[in-house]
Amino acid sequence: LRNFCKCTRTTMKIVRGPTSSVIEYTLQPLLLLTAFSFWYFNQQSLIAYPLIVLGVQLVLGFIEYQLPARPDWLLPAKQKIGLILLVIAIFIYSGSIAAPFYAITLDPMLSNMRSLFGIDVWPHHWPMIGQVILAFFLSELIWYWFHRAEHRWSLVWRLSGHGAHHSFKNLSALNFGANHPLEYFVLLVPSAIVELLFGAGAAIGGAAILLVTQASIVHSNIPTNSKGIGWLLTTNRYHIHHHSLVIEESNTNYGCAVILWDRLFGTFSDNNTIETGIGPSEPNMWNKLLIPLKEPSDSQISP
Known about the structure:
Layout: E1 4-7, E2 12-15, H1 18-40, H2 48-66, H3 77-104, H4 106-116, H5 128-152, H6 154-160, H7 162-166, H8 184-187, H9 189-197, H10 203-218, H11 236-242, H12 247-250, H13 260-265, H14 285-289
Antiparallel strand pairs: 1-2
């Protein structure tokens, strides 16, 4: 596989061959369909979730290496391994600390609210695929407003550690999980609300798979096409623009998986992205962890 790229500070031109053109137009829908199908036929298997995440990352990682949209974003092996270990550590933390914390606090509160107010609106009579799509779009609507608040108010930005996620200069599919540990307490809330307050039940599992697959795709360093699918779903062109070093560009495209909400609420933008990150340099790992307490002095996108 070969891909010839001519990159300048203002534009990126990709000379496409037959293979890259097929990937550009079909990768996102096919990967979403494959991930959902695997979950649908293995809904009772807990191992299905990590297998899907691993499979998605392997596919995207291989294509990033063979057909990078920005060859200069390819990480040296040492940095790549470091990023992999970081994501694994954060997921272990999420499963062992953040999730149990919400099981003790948020779960009872939302369940009690549902019982108290007699909320019984979830369409359990729908086919499962319809319930999953509804849960997917509803979760993203809730996340849109959480995410927009992180970029709107300095206190929310700092307390969530969202700047750590934006601090990476070179993005890849692995960046879907490279968030500050504090932010996982925010990331879990939308799905918890849909599952416990609205009673989505099993459908939230399928929605979670779509959300994670989308998050991986939209951070990937792969040339994909935004036409058609980009009316409803976020593409990596749109989300990389959200990671822009320019604050006016970073304050757009808040939907990590669904771009529809940005289109409806006036925060959508479709432009080339020159540079990503929070400043001219990327903070080291220690300074990323300290972002809730101390914003880097050269940060340009914090509210």
